[in-house]
């Protein structure tokens, strides 16, 4: 019997470096209260986000996919097939399949995601679809320093779709981009999706879908705290609230306490006033010029930009100087 080629490899990048309990408590004790959006993505949260990307109101995913499909050969030429393709926040690895179709000679793909179970499941499925591609699945919080597996390719290109860059605060964004530039080294590339400023009604609808999937996604964060940190949140006592803050150029997501209440996490008590919120996510929007200025400050030069016809979304290829 012919041996089956083992082309998927699993790695732990920095799983033990994040103290979830302390980080969550610090956020809830702050004023205003907040929780990092990275904690959305347990297995259920990752599945709910995949559902969000298919909603009619949620334009970013389908618009980015349109750009990737329309310009895939041009994008593949910019990235170069002699590189290792590294995807931050890979999820189901759905978007990268479009690029892989245009990069048949690519030898190494490195999906990186904080949700280990979802990552390993997706990596296994993709490795079976592309038997000649070496898949190195890394379980890690890519916003912090993590161990990269040993790769054969000398040049690296990071694929960072979804406009996740907009979830960072401005100072965090700069730090993250500089860290990425250091990882890539001069000549390395960053292929990144960036959501653009547009009509406020479009933005508000995208984060308040009629089916309530985004609401469920936001509230699932409390379910995760109940399960993993022994908290006692009652989901019916909180509501989902999302809106575009024009002054700050961002969509904000919050969980709003519907009454005065005290919850516990382990043996720690956290008091909420009626109407008080937990700020769970920001999603900054940019003009192309604004993003180029940020990238230039962080060690990148813009090589190419692709947009849809409505100029709702952009895909940038940046190179480390």
TrEMBL record:
Residues 21-319 form the Histidine-specific methyltransferase SAM-dependent domain. One of its GO terms (biological process) is methylation. GO terms for molecular function: methyltransferase activity. SUPFAM superfamilies: S-adenosyl-L-methionine-dependent methyltransferases (SSF53335). InterPro entries: EgtD, EgtD_Methyltrsf_superfamily, MeTrfase_dom, MeTrfase_EgtD-like, SAM-dependent_MTases_sf. Keywords: Methyltransferase, Transferase. It holds the Pfam family Methyltransf_33. The keyword Transferase applies. This is Dimethylhistidine N-methyltransferase.
């Amino acid at each position: 019997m012919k041996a089956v080629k083992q082309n998927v490899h699993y790695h732990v990048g920095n799983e033990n470096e994040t103290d979830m309990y302390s980080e969550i408590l610090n956020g809830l004790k702050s004023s205003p209260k907040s929780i990092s959006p990275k904690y959305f993505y347990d297995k259920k949260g990752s599945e709910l986000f995949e559902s969000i990307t298919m909603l009619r109101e949620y334009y970013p995913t389908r618009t980015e996919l349109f750009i990737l499909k329309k310009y895939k050969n041009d994008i593949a030429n910019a990235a170069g097939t002699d590189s290792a393709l590294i995807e931050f926040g890979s999820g189901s690895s759905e978007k990268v399949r479009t690029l892989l179709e245009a990069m048949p000679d690519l030898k190494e793909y490195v999906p990186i995601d904080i949700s280990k179970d979802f990552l390993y499941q997706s990596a296994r499925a993709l490795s079976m679809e592309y038997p000649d591609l070496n898949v190195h699945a890394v379980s890690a919080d890519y916003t912090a320093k993590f161990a990269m597996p040993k790769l054969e390719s000398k040049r690296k290109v990071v694929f960072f779709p979804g406009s996740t860059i907009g979830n960072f605060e401005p100072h965090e964004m700069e730090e993250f981009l500089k860290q990425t530039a250091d990882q890539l080294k001069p000549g390395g590339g960053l292929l990144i999706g960036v959501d653009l400023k547009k009509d406020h009604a479009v933005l508000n609808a995208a984060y308040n879908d009629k089916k309530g999937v985004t609401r469920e996604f936001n509230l699932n964060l409390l379910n995760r705290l109940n399960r993993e940190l022994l908290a006692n949140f009652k989901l019916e006592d909180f509501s989902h609230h999302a809106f575009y803050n024009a002054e700050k150029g961002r969509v904000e997501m919050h969980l709003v306490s519907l009454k005065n209440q005290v919850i516990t996490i382990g043996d720690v008590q956290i008091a909420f006033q009626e109407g008080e919120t937990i700020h769970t996510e920001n999603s900054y929007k940019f003009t192309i010029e604004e993003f180029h200025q940020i990238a230039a400050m962080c060690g990148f030069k813009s090589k190419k930009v692709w947009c849809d016809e409505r100029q709702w979304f952009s895909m940038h290829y940046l190179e480390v100087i």
